[in-house]
Write a structure and sequence with these properties.
heterodimer; A: alpha/beta; fumarase; 7 strands; B: alpha/beta; 2 domains; four-stranded mixed sheet; 10 strands; globular
Chain lengths: 185, 281
């Protein structure tokens, strides 16, 4: 990969706006994992007017439910899950200050609109490369909802976590751009 | 009459769950290595290279290939001369799954009830168990952990005979396009044609257990498999949906007799982590 952009967390809006669709990035610092069940619980809490277990301002959420860590390991397999399932909850989470999301797959137009409005960038990691990705995760700590098992809200310490910008803050979509030259139908 | 203790089944299934989730089978590994050489997109090539590296890391037995270690799908062929003793078969199967997923540090991804409380069963049971009775005194178990990134992208269409071959191609192509990056391409595409509604979906699932380098023995279907693979790889979706010529590694079709009024077509998609294990007792 020619140009790799290294970023460290927290991800300011200025930094998220500098990332462009198609960029390869390596993330170092702290990111947070949450998937279907944690998103449901958090948006329900917001609807009741309650506070979330953490402040998401300038943070990155990774859609992940890892396998259990073996003794001596920080985490098990830790690849991304399908982002589209979180579409229903994402605009509300972005309103909480999220500047970065990591997952895999397409997003809804409502999510992209919300991303543009709030300077949030959507990155993808290689789905199904959970063993390889785990090598860049140095620590995993459950922050809230431990009863959700692999779906708990957790804090991850990462070093050079590899991702690709799929949709940038201006709504440019690398899935469309990347596929176009190879479509022969 | 041959007697088999159900505990043997429990032990075999536990081992297979672990084996399938850590060791990518040779047919899939070889297909990925070949695809890496052929891929025209630089990024696509790099992605496939990383997927191969991921399989190499998983093989050492410390980290599974993918964190979605799936819902456990089991096809069991029981010889009609086999007498199972020592307990209830279904319980023995689920005990094997629970043992494998716990001892193998695999993710427990099953909820006991799908709609109202969705509570995790904490041991990945129950498995999806398909049993068939066959001649002989052997017991064959085929096991495939099924991830839901790809499972969610499957489809069933009840075509009519007039839709014909073109209709079948359109169903497959439309399903793949809709799946895109969500199904973790390069994918493996299982197609079931004929039978009834439930039979077609079962055939599609069963086809995914066939090694990727084996074509359907019926030349008409083998040709259709090749044609569909070529077509799917022209969508441009590519590795992880980021563009390229490797959208699928294989298209496997299984077929069955059907009604004069029908042409059911089911498409079941697997991600590149197409995991399966097989054992005969």
């Amino acid at each position: 990969m020619a140009d790799v952009k290294r970023i460290t967390t927290p991800l300011t809006k200025e930094m998220s706006r500098s990332l462009k669709a198609g960029d390869s990035v390596l993330i170092t610092g702290t990111i947070y994992s949450a998937r279907d069940a944690a998103h449901k619980v958090m948006t329900e809490a917001l609807a009741r007017g309650e506070k979330l277990p953490m402040d998401f301002t300038n943070q990155i959420v990774y859609y992940l439910g890892p396998t259990p860590a073996r003794p001596g390991k920080a985490i098990g397999a830790a690849g991304p899950t399908t982002a589209g399932r979180m579409d229903a909850y994402t605009p509300q989470m972005i309103e909480q200050g999220l500047t970065g999301i990591i997952g895999k797959g397409y997003r809804s137009p409502a999510v992209v609109e919300s991303m543009k409005k709030n300077s949030t960038v959507y990155m993808v990691a290689i789905g199904g490369a959970g063993a390889l990705i785990a090598e860049s995760i140095k620590a995993y700590e459950v922050l809230a909802y431990p009863e959700l098992g692999p779906e708990a809200l957790a804090k991850l310490t990462v070093e050079d976590f590899p991702a690709i910008v799929a949709i940038d803050c201006e709504g440019n979509n690398f899935y469309e751009k990347g596929q176009k030259p190879y479509c022969k139908l | 009459m041959r007697t088999i203790e159900v505990d043997q089944i429990t032990q075999a299934i536990a081992k297979m769950c672990i084996d399938a989730c850590y060791n990518l089978s040779a047919d899939v590994y070889d297909a990925l290595v070949a695809a890496e050489k052929q891929e025209e997109s630089t990024l696509g090539k790099e992605i496939i290279g990383k997927i191969v590296k991921n399989a190499d890391i998983a093989k050492n037995g410390e980290v599974p290939i993918c964190q979605d270690t799936g819902m456990t799908v089991i096809f069991m062929e029981i010889g009609q001369d086999v007498h199972l003793v020592g307990g209830n078969l279904e319980e023995a199967v689920n005990a094997g799954v629970a043992k494998g997923y716990t001892e193998g540090y695999l993710r427990k991804s099953v909820v006991g009830e799908p709609l109202f409380n969705r509570k995790n069963t904490t041991n990945n049971t129950p498995a999806i168990l398909h049993i068939s009775i066959v001649p002989g005194d052997k017991l064959k178990i085929k096991l495939a952990p099924k991830g839901f990134g790809s499972e969610n992208k499957g489809a069933l269409k009840m075509l009519v005979p007039a839709d014909g071959i073109e209709g079948v191609k359109k169903v497959v192509l439309d399903t793949v396009k809709l799946a895109g990056p969500n199904a973790c391409p390069p994918m493996v595409i299982g197609v079931g044609i004929g039978g009834t509604m439930e039979k077609a979906t079962l055939l599609a699932k069963k086809s995914l257990l066939r090694p990727l380098n084996k074509r359907n023995p019926n030349p008409d279907y083998a040709n259709l498999e090749a044609e569909l693979l070529e077509l799917v790889n022209k969508t441009g979706i590519g590795p992880q949906g980021l563009g390229g010529i490797t959208t699928a590694l294989a298209v496997n079709i299984e077929y069955f007799a059907t009604h004069i009024a029908g042409l059911p077509v089911a498409v079941n998609i697997n991600c590149h982590a197409t995991r399966h294990a097989e054992v005969e007792l």
